[in-house]
Amino acid sequence: MTDLFRGGCQCGAVRFEVTGTLGRPSVCHCRMCQKAFGNVFAPLVSVREASLTWTKDEPARFQSSNLVKRGFCPKCGTPLTYEAPDGVALAIGAFDHPQAIVPDIQYGVEGRIPWMDQVNDWPVRETMDDLEAAPFLDKLVSYQYPDES
To answer: What's the pLDDT score for residue 134?
Structure first.
């Protein structure tokens, strides 16, 4: 049986399907990945051993270095790809079921933000637990493209 994974951007303009076996899931802390994702690390999974098909529009690309392009949705800006000479990796958060793709290695640790070591020590709240501080949340309607089953 061939594995099938689907995903895409926030607005739904760019969608993909991956058939086959995913590569090793990772997070990268390097400064280039931080900037590309607008975050403190980039969760990625290689699809070089699988078949990637863009089922709607393809991402736009930014040449972030002499060897790497970064794909993103040209309409909503969602980061989608890391494209290097050895293959393509997709943003784990762009998959419809990202919880099924568990990173097991970290790269670029020279850029790791020191406070990441304490993130699991911080208090936690679900989104709707914060209504007192942000009362608008009870009126929030998502316009994001829905995850597919």
So the answer is: 84
pLDDT tens, position by position, 19-58? 999 999 999 999 999 999 999 999 999 999 999 999 999 9
Exposed, middle or buried by CB within 10 Å (0-12, 13-18, 19+), for 132?
Answer: exposed
Q: Which pairs count as long-range contacts for 140-146, CB under 8 Å and 24+ apart, including other chains?
A: 143/11, 144/10, 144/11, 144/12, 145/8, 145/9, 145/10, 145/11, 145/12, 145/15
Report the DSSP pairing between strands 42-46 and 51-54: unpaired
Per-residue CA distances from 146 to 9, 20, 42, 125, 130 (Å): 10, 23, 22, 23, 23
Domains of the chain: residue spans and CATH:
4-113+126-139 (3.90.1590.10)
